[in-house]
Amino acid sequence: MRQMEFGMTTIWRERPTPTPTMCPTPCLFYDYLKREGVLNFTKGIPTSLAMGSIQQWDKENAWPPMVHMVIEGFRTSGDIKLMKAAEQMATQWLIVNYKSYSKSYAMFEKYNASMFSEEFGAGGGGEYEVQKGFGWTNG
After folding, report:
1. Cβ-contact 33, 43 below 8 angstroms
2. N or C: which end of the chain has fewer CB within 10 A?
């Protein structure tokens, strides 16, 4: 199977979409996330584990569409362990969004997934200010 990796999203060239729901081996994807420590993040799934980057798609940012893809991929996997992980991730993600909204009265395009901060709220980095009221978080 030929593949290209972009952060933690793997795109299979034989597939039309880069989602874990299309992944033929969801258990391997889960094991990868676990081995890399991604499942220890309780405020979302970081888009990458790149250290020291100021790019908006790198650590410590969690992007709602990617979090959704991983949760849905695990939820629909048919594997009990992954389905339970999806439920736990979804619950944690709802808490993050609720606490962030309660503090700022806004939904954001990306969220701070840092394990080293008690802060709940918008992520950072990139070429423009963090967007409030982004379509995929308000939708």
Report:
1. no
2. C
Average pLDDT value for residue range 86-96: 95
Pinpoint the alpha helices (H) of 43-79.
64-75
Q: What pLDDT score was predicted for residue 27?
A: 84
Q: Give a yes or no: residue 83 inside a domain.
A: yes
Tokens of residue 2, six digits: 């030929």
Q: How far apart, in whole angstroms, are the C-alpha atoms of residue 63 and residue 79?
A: 25
Q: Domain count of the chain?
A: 1
Burial track 110-136 (b if 16+ CB lie within 10 A, e otherwise): bbbbbeeeeebbbbeebeeebeeebee
Residue 124, domain member (yes or no): yes
Is residue 48 in some structural domain? no
pLDDT above 60 (res 4): no
This model's pTM is above 0.90: no
